[in-house]
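One such shown below:
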Amino acid sequence: MSKITFRERARYWFDNTMSRGTASLIGWLAVVSVGLIVVVAVLTMWLAPGEPEGVGHAGEVLWIALMHALTPGKVASDKGSLAYMTVMFVCSLGGLFIVSMLVGLLSNGLKQKVDRLRRGRSRIVESGHTVILGWSDQVFTIVAELVKAHASQKGSVIAVLAERDKLEMEEAVREHVGDLGRTRIVCRTGRPTEPRDLALMNLAAARSVVVLSPEGDDPDAHVIKILLALAKRRGAHPPVVAGLTSSRNAAAARLAGGPDVHLVDSDDTASRLIVQSSRQSGMSVVCMDLLNFDGGEIYLRTPKKLVGVTYGEALHAYQTASAIGLRRPSGVVLNPPADTVINADDEVIVIAHDDSHVRLAAGMPAIDEAAIVTTGTAPTEPERTLLLNWNGRAEQIIRYLDGYVAPGSVLEVAADHPKAGTNLAGLRNLTVNVKDCDTTDRFALESLGVGLFQHVIVLSDDRFDPHHADTRTLMTLLQLRDMQSTLGEHYSIVSEMHDENNRALAEVTEADDIVISDTVIGLLLAQLAENRHLADVFAYLFDSQGSEIYPRPAGDYVKTGTRVSFATVVESARRRGETAIGYRNATARNDPPHYGIVLNPDKSEPIVLGRRDSVIVLAER
């Protein structure tokens, strides 16, 4: 091998210095520029001494050379000998290339610094802030709900870290959420899986962390990687709430995140809500009211005056709040037996419109005994349910539905999806039939005999992008609505959609329930970010075991058409082993945003319930 020459060493050294970035380039150009000016000054004093006129020493010559290098146009006003004009022309020409390149590099370096500041790479110095890691459409729901929750707090901060432009994120939040009130949004550009980028969020001082499931392929893998990065970091670990899209990845995510992480299973939660909504009209609206920070919210309270009191007596203990259960050391139980005694280490779970409304009443309310109706519970009978379309959570929905219905019930699956009706072995109560059907085609729908079914579930077809899938769902709902009005048929309809903006369009179809799965998960994440102890409460609500929310005929509780207080309704439900939390006005069932649902009315509020109205209760099946 030949010996390395001096030239090669010099070139290698030069390459290394140039690879150091803008600062190195500027240094070399500055050296070359200074060399050019010095050479021009020396040549001027040698070839044209005494020029230009009035120049007395070398410093003035250097200054003239510098001005010619910085301003090449000065050569046009020069006068003197040929030698002087030639040297100044060379100086101006050199300055045109070298010094202008130096100015350009300085400008570019400054621009890069400004862009770096614009992207947001400084460390957050806030404390008590909520951190959101990742980006999806759920971020707008979460931010909007946290803004409502923090409306009375001064200096509230929500910090977002995602692989998007800082200004783009801030503009998107302002566009979708609107007025942020007293809450500030701080966005940082970075990868939530990188420890260096996580350090920007000052996690040790954060109140809670929300990890979003991103859009795209295999989103749960991304969530699990973020949980690993959070678990491995040093310092204090705030509570973490993470969203998953598949139940199959829950065990891996729990192992990655550790004990401080609460996981929200998007598929499981949405599937349970769709099934419950298909059986209880208005269920989705009730859940949305409980999950958002607009109407009734769930609080945990430890009132000393209720220690030793039974749960049945506690139902009348609040004037403007509704007790719904107990959080005990052994776990959460909603609608426990009326004779359950409240212990000192129990917390009462209540629904209230605001924290300040959770106050004990002065005394027991007046009960109208004459208005209370005593009826038995109707036995469950086999049902017929129609499932239109198919997607990844359809199998889970059918299995949950199988746990609700009576033996001998029938489920008809109508879809042109290649996987429709697969992997359904082991069902106990349902008989499943599958038909190939284009659910947007009117004639195909009429051939199904929809009027023979009590319940219709319209799923979002996962073969299409979310916007197109919602469009197809709207077309199916419109066809069903027209068939109902034309043929005089009646059956409950629950539909699944992706975009909250399509809810307003779907209202014209008068579907009983519209489940926006992304919005539901976003609301649940926001609730748990504020109070992670509510996780067990919501898990109990969405579980098929134990008490659930049911809208039941008002005539089963009080005499219809009679003016009664809501306390009388609560007492009637208590005697049936149920907890009344509100009612539904049938005449307003299609009026947004509450669709006739009234949760947690004042106990002394006089109401008149009609034959078609419902009482919303927590009850066993």
About this structure: DSSP finds 19 helices and 22 strands in the chain. Residues 345 and 359 are 19 Å apart (CA to CA). The two ends are 87 Å apart (CA to CA).
